[in-house]
Amino acid sequence: MPSHKIAKISSDMMRVISSILFEEARDEILKTITITGCKVSNDLSYAKVYFTSLSDMDKKTLEKEVNEAAPFIRGLVAEKLDLRHTPELTFIFDDSIEYANRIESIIKEIHEENKDERNNNYK
């Protein structure tokens, strides 16, 4: 379980990276990205940044593009946050939203089937 300090740094990094992508990125691909989470290692040397995108681009290609921009983003994070050492950033595509939507559609389908069954039993 991360300490309060690590959790605060993760939260701050998430906020700063989001603003960097929205306000300072020139690449249109980076502007389509939404940061969904950030996990900083206990020694503050690495950070996994989870993101999703509304872009039509393939997940692997998108992940590759964002990771190529990671050193640039890390430099801007270093300017905006007062940290002794800015963690190395690794961007990971977050499938949790897709997964949740798929589960929701399955549950909805089951409810529809049960509703149809109950309607047929009353006839």
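The record above closes out task 2.4. Task 2.5 opens with a second protein, given below.
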Amino acid sequence: MADQDADTQPRFMLRSQYIKDLSLENPHAPASLIAAGKQPPKVELNIDLGAQKVQDDLFELMMRINVRALGERTLFMVDLTYAGLFAVEGIPEQNLEPVLMVDGAFILFPFARRVIADVTRDGGFPPLLLEPVDFYRFYQERIAQAQAAAAAG
């Protein structure tokens, strides 16, 4: 009986994770490196999520993170697309999007955060440690924006 229950349980498993695209721009080096230690930069952060079906029960979740650090001028810009392949079994279609966009993003974010910290450090700046993100709230806001756009259009 326990084996039958295990076969029918929903499963959501990370199969692979990878950098799809990564760019660091340090447009005013070396002057920006000298100025970087004088005062903390203003950091602009933008995160976007997208998912696509790759095969039956296999989905790719892409997390696009754009960071811009500003002092007197732009100190650096990081563009990262970090992705994961997720195997999905037994999850109803209506629950698939929130599982990918919330749970999948929650799984991938610490790894993307580390990539950004490493690349900013390797670019000559102190490592940029992004604050944790509430992907549930992020998903809810995205749904509300889509509903408002549909109502207006």
